[in-house]
Amino acid sequence: MFDKMPKQLSQHQQLPLHYLSLSTTSISPPWKSISNHRRLPPTAAAAASNAAVNDVPSDITIHVDDATFSLHKFPLVSRCGRIRKLLAEVPDSERQTSIELRGLPGGADSFDLAAQFCYGVNFEITAANVADLYCASHYLEMTEDYSNSNLISRAGEYLDTVVCRSLEMSVEVLRCCEPLLPLADDLRVVARCVDAIASKASAEQIASSFSRLEYSSSGRLHMSKHARGGGSGDWWAEDLSVLRIDLYERVIAAMKSRGVRPESVGAALVSYTQRELLKKTRPDHEPRLVVETITGLLPLERFAVPLSFLFGLLKSAVALDCALSSRLDLERRIGSQLDAATLDDALIPSFGNEGDTLFDVDTFHRILINFSQQDCDSEDDDLESLFESGSPAAAASPSQSALFRVSKLVDSYLTEIASDANLKLNKFVAVAESLPAHARTVHDGLYRAIDVYLKAHQGITDQERRKLCKLIDFQKLSQEAGSHAAQNERLPLQSVVQVLYYEQLRLRTALLCTGSSAFPDDDAKPAVHQSWRISSGALSAAMSPRDNYASLRRENRELKLELARLRMRLNDLEKEHVCMKRNMDKDKSSSRKFMICFARVIGKMRVLVRCYSTASPSPSSSTSKQLQGEKIKQHNL
């Protein structure tokens, strides 16, 4: 009976790839159940056509985990090198042989399929069992050395020709490899799937990019507007979310090396992180591992992931007490785009002891330092862009506008944390001083934050109050804030005097500018220019000439700020001048009307006098005329 079996077992080579059997009439193995152990039933057709084989008693018992298999030696020995070696160590005198296979990849299910292959039973290779079959055939040594087209070659061929051509099947096989590690990694099953996923994702991205191209009116190719921000080629991001973090890390690294867009990688990371951190049934160490791994996988490009996601990742890292390197990396990334942050993003909860502040001030302070360093590095580019254009839009470089936005964020942040009773003065001052002096054009927000701090910490000393108020440039307060500061009893007396002094200077400057505009012949205009030179040029003149280029850069920033301040003041004065001019015009028009009426009255009086004089001549004039007539008559005589 066993002499015919090798010829029948060799016939399965002619079947399709995913079928590893002779046919439905192949020889069926005589499995028998022992006590309550697992029973592996043969196919019905095989059992019916090979009933004679079932009468042959089993001569080997194989134990795999909790399952027991009663089989025959010859079908197993003809294909399994490991079983052949184990049986060679057993004496021939033993009629019934028992073998235990410890650590078989895939367990009893994998051995079930391998035994069916040895007996020629039909079964289908799928993406769900190919990894188990490949690793189990390697463990059982079912190679070409013992039989042609053995199980390991069939499973490997299925991996290369079927699985690696589909991204979904590669992901499924990769997920099935999780319990098979590290053997699946040593056999390059994981590497094949990872490379297949990366190449397919890259190809999908290229195909989607070509599909979004369109011709313009001039005949040039360009990306369509409605598809520029779309992610139609990133459907694979959701499929990858089922992978374990270590395998997911390898897939993302392979995608980066294949040139997948940073935006696509960032979207996939956001989707995976949100799904993993929301899982409830997981070991305590896994969320920390997820956060640290995702942090290391973030693209280097700015704005590849949303800033709110970076802040959320940082808050999770603080809560889970992740590695310091991961937290510092997140702080550096956030600092590079801090100008787009909101107050809710910046409020990072503190998870320290009871005496700590409500929010993590130290973390936000380090973020501000990273932003300041990045801003200093970009000053060269800002200076070049400033001199390239003389338009008003170029007066404030992108870095300068970012500074303005961050200064508003810092002032709002200080106002929010100022009421915390555990907030120390040195931390408050450190956050306020983290930005350069030219970042704030108006100090109203900083004054409001300091006022809240003074109100919440009434026990601080006068020296600490003076130290705190030195942060405010009272010359940069608005009129409303200056009026409030002049009446604020919580401020030191020296600060109140400064407020009153600058208010007086502001009033004087406004009067001088008004006078110079109303009376252009006066010498008030040079005085205004002189005061402007003093306020803007004193700082640059007092600076050390160690680095001329840096000093010119700082002076340029000061000049820009002073110009902006003067423009605002000029607008206010122009409004006042227009109002005064209107009032003067009204006064002039009323006086002109009075003079016109008075002149008309005088004119009418003169006309009346002339009419009266012509109508009734005086006697002196009539007598003189008579005397002249008499003289003429006498002369004629």
Automatic annotation (TrEMBL):
Pathway: Protein modification; protein ubiquitination. Residues 614-624 have a biased composition (Low complexity). Keywords: Coiled coil, Ubl conjugation pathway. It comes from the Eukaryota. Residues 234-506 form the NPH3 domain. Residues 614-637 are annotated as: Disordered. Residues 549-583 form a coiled coil. It holds the Pfam family BTB. Residues 58-127 form the BTB domain. Transmembrane segments: none annotated. Residues 628-637 have a biased composition (Basic and acidic residues). Belongs to the NPH3 family. This is Root phototropism protein 2. It comes from Salvia splendens.
